[in-house]
Write a structure and sequence with these properties.
With about 220 residues, this protein is mainly beta. It contains 1 helix and 14 strands, in the order E-E-E-E-E-E-E-E-E-E-H-E-E-E-E.
């Protein structure tokens, strides 16, 4: 015969996670060559980070130039490429992209609004300073026709890095791919990597825990 016994215990045990933000900052204050695919390349090395990535953000401080000329990407230690900027504003009706100068933005793997169409309200609707956007994510030829941009997937964005390993060399690249729009300057780049350690099996929290024990009891019938 099986008999169930329930015991009350305090405190209870539940799993928990703590997210850590790790920032890597470079201030190159360097000009982005006008109309050149050579561009600028910066690298960040992440070491000693525990667990896996929950999110990645990239803050860009750029002044001058012609925003529709800019192309930028990030590569993680596993070689996965995300497209941060791909000639913002280029569409079938605008082959040259947005004509404003500079940006001070954060690209976020959890953001919803795509940077490629930040001025979708029309000319004069630019509102970039200090705002957060999803990376462009269009992994296509920056010199492609505007119709290609209209139909391109935006899947190559920062959300690709979720649940990947953080440690190693990260590579950032930016270029101005069309001459004549003036000179842009890359003032600052900040890569922020949010990680969560491997989950602990249990941590102590207040509350009650019901523990169920099952055991077999043998009855012997007498004469």
């Amino acid at each position: 015969m099986l008999i169930a016994v329930v015991l009350a215990a305090t405190p209870s045990l539940v799993s928990a996670q703590v997210i850590t933000t790790n920032n890597y900052s470079l201030s190159p204050n360097a000009g982005i060559p006008d109309g050149s695919p050579v561009g600028l390349l910066e690298q960040f090395t992440a070491t000693g980070l525990a667990g896996s990535i929950t999110n990645v953000t990239v803050h860009l401080d750029i002044t001058g130039g012609f925003n529709g000329d800019l192309y930028a990407y990030l590569v993680n230690p596993q070689g996965q490429l995300t497209v941060l900027l791909n000639r913002v504003g280029v569409t079938a009706s605008n082959q040259f992209g947005y004509n404003d100068s500079g940006m001070n933005i954060t690209l976020d793997g959890l953001a919803a609004n795509n940077i490629h169409t930040y001025a979708s309200g029309g000319p004069g609707s630019y509102s970039l300073s200090g705002t957060t956007w999803a990376a462009d994510g269009r992994n296509i030829d920056p010199q492609a026709a505007g119709t290609v941009f209209d139909s391109a997937s935006t899947a190559a964005n920062l959300s690709l890095y979720q649940n990947t390993a953080p440690n190693g060399v990260w590579t950032f690249f930016i270029a101005d791919l069309s001459g004549g729009g003036g000179n842009a300057t890359l003032n600052n780049v900040v890569l922020s990597i949010m990680t969560v350690p491997e989950p602990q099996t249990w941590v102590m929290l207040g509350g009650g825990l019901a523990v169920l024990f099952l055991y077999r009891r043998r009855y012997k019938c007498g004469s």
